[in-house]
Design brief:
Layout: H1 3-11, H2 18-41, H3 51-57, H4 61-64, H5 69-75, E1 86-87, H6 92-101, E2 107-114, H7 122-132, E3 138-145, E4 161-167, H8 174-196, E5 199-203, E6 207-209, E7 221-225, E8 258-266, H9 267-286, H10 295-305, E9 310-312, E10 332-334, H11 335-339, H12 344-349
């Protein structure tokens, strides 16, 4: 309605008054403003997607997970812009990855830190991992805890599953825990883990596995997409903005925002990451600096410089939130994140 008269005006086929020209310009400006507002409301994704996906679907990631399960599986992004697999558990690609490992004998470590009040999540975490973490494969659980007796009696384990308890000093307060965890992980991997397993994954203890997590997750360096920031514009990512911090990220940097709830890979690669992040944290502490996202900020800084070779979808780190992305299957749920949003009575009912 606006563009047609304007096109005729530009072609010289119609004459208008100055007042009419001003009106047309005003209407055109309002149209542009509306389109920009609509784009912002729909949260159009601005970080890289496979070109084939953009061309074929013509849709943003947040809109992809709509329709039947079959339609979802056909339209999900399966690869990052740098060629790493973007893993959805029920995709054909994941089935192929599982087939590749079906005839291999792989030992994998699952490492978690259970200190202070987080210790009460440990038994539920281990029980759910027994059911769903790399079923049918050899797994060694490494539990770093300040209360080793909390595992008496020990959780029953199936064939090919082992438990190692690593005593650590008490770390009061979430901030102390978050700031010191990378150093503890690096030390554990260096001292024992790397001698016993090929792959190691680090998970928060306040998570519960609720669906199979198979060998599709194995890779050299594996990171997991944050469920509340998946498919959101890059400017919404809570990267560290303080230039003096070693976790600082420039405005034009970054592909995705990764959660610190689950990451892993080959022992050598995970050790290198944990060691690098712990050193950056220590150097910032010496300068009196603390990144806004604590260890997660340094994790994201590292993964910008050293992109992961395998990226797990939000299926592998999810919690009930109005901001969380829709996913075909919820495989790992963060009980801690969900508990934070509950009323006291609900928290008690959920054993938070």
């Amino acid at each position: 309605m606006v563009l047609f008269p304007l096109c005729k005006l530009l072609s010289g086929s119609v004459r208008v008054t100055k007042k009419q020209l001003v009106l047309y310009c005003l209407l055109l400006s309002l149209l542009v403003y509306f389109l920009r507002w609509r784009r912002a409301v729909l949260k159009v994704d601005t970080h890289p997607l496979p070109l084939s996906l953009e061309a074929e679907s013509g849709s943003v990631v947040r809109d992809i997970v709509v329709g039947s399960v079959e339609e979802q599986q056909q339209r999900l992004p399966l690869e990052t812009s740098w060629g790493a697999p973007l893993v959805w558990g029920d995709s054909d690609g994941s089935a192929s990855r599982r087939a590749e490992f079906a005839h291999r004998s792989v030992r994998t470590g699952l490492l978690t830190l259970a200190v202070g009040p987080y210790g009460h999540f440990l038994r539920r975490f281990l029980s759910s991992a027994e059911l769903y973490f790399l079923p049918g494969n050899t797994v060694v659980y490494y539990v770093l805890t300040d209360s080793p007796r909390a595992l008496d009696p020990p959780t029953p384990l199936g064939p090919g599953r082992e438990l190692r308890v690593v005593p650590v000093a008490e770390m009061p307060g979430w901030e102390h825990l978050a700031q010191g965890r990378m150093a503890l992980l690096a030390a554990a991997i260096k001292d024992s883990v790397r001698h016993e397993v090929e792959y190691v994954f680090c998970m928060d203890v306040d998570q519960e596995l609720v669906a199979p997590v198979g060998t599709e997750i194995l890779g050299e360096l594996v990171a997991t997409l944050h469920p509340e920031l998946y498919a959101m514009p890059r400017h919404t990512f809570p990267y560290e903005h303080e230039p003096a911090s070693l976790a600082h990220v420039e405005e034009d940097e970054g592909d995705y925002y990764y959660t610190s709830e689950l990451y892993g890979g080959l022992c050598a690669d995970v050790y290198a990451m944990a060691q690098a992040c712990s050193q950056l944290i220590l150097q910032d502490q010496e300068k009196g600096l603390r990144a806004r996202g604590l260890e997660e900020s340094y994790l994201n800084r590292y993964l910008i410089n050293r992109r992961p070779t395998c990226v797990l979808s939000p299926e592998y780190s999810w919690w009930d939130s109005a901001l969380a992305a829709d996913v075909p299957t919820r495989r790992v749920v963060s009980l801690g994140r969900q508990c934070d949003t509950l009323e006291p009575q609900k928290r008690q009912e959920q054993d938070c």
